[in-house]
Amino acid sequence: MKVEVWSDFACPFCYIGKRRLEAALERFPHRDEVEVVYHSFELDPAAEKNTDFDIHTMLARKYGMSREQAKQMNDNVAQQAKSVGLTYNMDTIVPTNTFDAHRLAQYAADHGKGVEMTERLLKAYFTDTVNLSDREVLADLAVEVGFERETVVALLDGDEYTNKVRSDEQEASALGIRGVPFFVLDRKYGVSGAQQTEVFTQALEKAWSERA
């Protein structure tokens, strides 16, 4: 059974949703027969690579609220992350463009390490709070996952995997996906958002029973 996940590395609920899906898979009796595939989705394709504001200011501008309100919202998200064992350092997150990070994830997926690379990129953004549009940073992360630095630097300096990222985004649009995370089970069932683990468990069981 295939579980496809559309997500962005700058999406706080994508990391939380990933953990809840993993928790559901842990208790799923057929977990060894489930393949999880991550697809590209940019929350803000027009995001600048280098910004001079933090995530609280970004949220305040986006939703027309005060910085204090935005910070409170982000603190609430950090608490949700903590409930699934994640550490979000919201005050030091670097808002940036995630396109190159998606290209790197596509490359990793082609080489059997898509899930590992996705995990490392999410942790890098929310916990380590590094700049995910910095190609040297991306190369460092790729090395951690097991890739050759020179190969990744050359990849990022070119335009490889641009088409794959765009294809994923076009597919999301065709499927009616407007926000992430979005989980598609065997192309039959969709789960929108970072639902509770029980919701993922029920979806897995339903999709599996129909498959059987």
What does it look like?
The protein has a four-stranded mixed sheet, sandwiched between helices. By secondary structure, it is α+β, with helices and mostly antiparallel strands. The model has no long low-confidence stretch (mean pLDDT 97). The chain has helices spanning 12-26, 55-63, 67-83, 99-110, 114-126, 135-145, 149-157, 162-174, 197-211; strands at 2-7, 35-40, 182-185, 189-192.
Summarize the structure.
With 212 residues, the protein is an alpha+beta fold. The chain has helices spanning 12-26, 55-63, 67-83, 99-110, 114-126, 135-145, 149-157, 162-174, 197-211, and strands at residues 2-7, 35-40, 182-185, 189-192.
CATH topology: Glutaredoxin
- Helical fraction equals 40-55%
What spatial form do the alpha-carbon principal axes imply? globular
- Kindly state the number of beta strands: 4
The main sheet comes to: 4 strands, mixed
Which regions are unreliable across 5 or more consecutive residues at pLDDT < 50?
none
Mean pLDDT: 97
The CATH homologous superfamily corresponds to Glutaredoxin
Count of the domains: 1
What is the annotated CATH architecture?
3-Layer(aba) Sandwich
**Global structural class:** alpha+beta
SSE order and pairing:
Elements lengths: L1 E6 L4 H15 L8 E6 L14 H9 L3 H17 L15 H12 L3 H13 L8 H11 L3 H9 L4 H13 L7 E4 L3 E4 L4 H15 L1
Parallel strand pairs: 1-2
Antiparallel strand pairs: 1-3, 3-4
What are the main properties of this structure?
Glutaredoxin, four-stranded mixed β-sheet, 212 residues, single chain, alpha+beta
